[in-house]
Amino acid sequence: MRLFVSYLDGREQRPYVRPMALREILVVPDPTLKKVSARVDVVDDAVRALMDDMLETMYAAPGIGLAAIQVGVAKRVIVMDLARAEEPPAPQHFVNPEILWASEETAPYEEGCLSVPEIYDEVERPSQVKIRYQTYHGETVEEDAEGLYAVCIQHEMDHLDGVLFIDHLSRLKREQAVKKVKKQAKAA
Ligand code: GNR
Ligand code: NI
Predict the structure, then answer these.
(1) What pLDDT shows up at residue 180?
(2) What pLDDT was estimated at residue 20?
(3) In this prediction, what percent of the chain has a pLDDT beyond 70?
(4) DSSP per residue over the chain, as a string?
(5) N or C: which end of the chain has fewer CB within 10 A?
(6) Which atom number of ligand 1 is nearest to the Cα of residue 113?
(7) How many CB atoms lie within 10 A of CB 65?
(8) Bond before 29 cis per omega within 30 degrees
(9) Structure confidence at residue 59 (pLDDT)
(10) Is 3.90.45.10 the CATH number for 15-187?
(11) Which CA distances in Å does 173 have to 3, 161, 170, 181, 188?
């Protein structure tokens, strides 16, 4: 993995390196997770540095996706890597993602969330979506997603609106999940 990223800080002529950083992942019932994240104006070096930290944090967890709000930053930024263990890493970056179309057809998937540790349950979501987002380099692209990609991007985009996968479950299951996580936190 790349350990350092370079950027210009606006004061010096010469690029310098900034060590990447692991950030703390917020867990329920942290109220920050309920915030609606703000759109990003420009994909600049600060946004890229945030995405670099988020990927490092996600790989360390480990997880397959991470939204900026999970590290306490209320910006519409997501990172993801859906590569299998035996495949080379395939980091993906999404800034200001939008769903342009969602299929009528839905599919269930057993979801988990780094902000709701050790809780897994089935969520039903559209099985295919068409999305638009800006890349690491600020280019706007459109893509079709299905399978795990569709599940994960919808899970991450929910985070940008303060929605967790347990919000798609019954009130009873959601309350049980939060209770379990609180108990784990106490024991730790
Ligand atoms: O690592 C994660 N795995 C996962 C599994 C099924 C459905 C969604 C996910 S996303 C999750 C990481 C996370 O919490 N992202 O917000
Ligand atoms: Ni999540």
Answers:
(1) 97
(2) 83
(3) 91
(4) ---EEEE--SS-SS-EEEE----PPP-TT-GGGGSPPBPPS---HHHHHHHHHHHHHHHHTT-SEEEGGGGT--BSEEEEE---TTSPP-EEEEEEEEEEEE-S-EEEEEEEETTEEEEEEEEEEESEEEEEEE-TTS-EEEEEEEHHHHHHHHHHHHHHTT--GGGGS-HHHHHHHHHHHHHHHHH-
(5) C
(6) 14
(7) 24
(8) yes
(9) 97
(10) yes
(11) 40, 21, 5, 12, 23
Residues touching ligand 1 (Cβ under 6 Å) are 63-67, 70, 111-115, 151-152, 155-156, 159
Name residue, tokens 């370079």.
6
Tell me if residue 156 is catalytic.
yes
The mean pLDDT of 48-62, rounded to a whole number, is: 97
Mean pLDDT of 122-147: 98
Atom index in ligand 1 nearest the CA of residue 64 equals 1
User: Per-residue pLDDT averaged across 171-177, rounded?
Assistant: 98
| Nearest ligand, CA 121 | 1
